[in-house]
Amino acid sequence: MTTICNIIDTLSIARKLFPGKKNNLDALCKRYNIPISHRAFHSAIIDAILLQKVYIKMTSKQKKISFSIVNNNNILPTISNTKKIVHSSLKIQKASSQELLAHKQYLKNMLLKYKKCIWYQ
Questions:
Q1: Which one from 38, 42, 87, 103 is the annotated catalytic residue?
Q2: The pTM is what?
């Protein structure tokens, strides 16, 4: 089975944002104020979680989000450095039946290969 996936090179993004500066994971976490005190040793899982946080910060203009209750019924986000959102309707893109079938097959292959797949039912 051939697997095709999109790859995003976060290092090239960081080099464009911060040319000439250190752009390893530790430097980026420090630059974006992401705590790394729990990173006592190299762990792919911890690094992936940290990189996810760095990626969100690198690709988002949004600096902060907080929620406030209005009329005890509506919760509206307040976002700094962007326009205030009063009402937003996000388009939900659902997977097609072909995509769902491909995903199920991928999980089944994972189960067969590794003898365990927590997502396969």
A1: 42
A2: 0.48
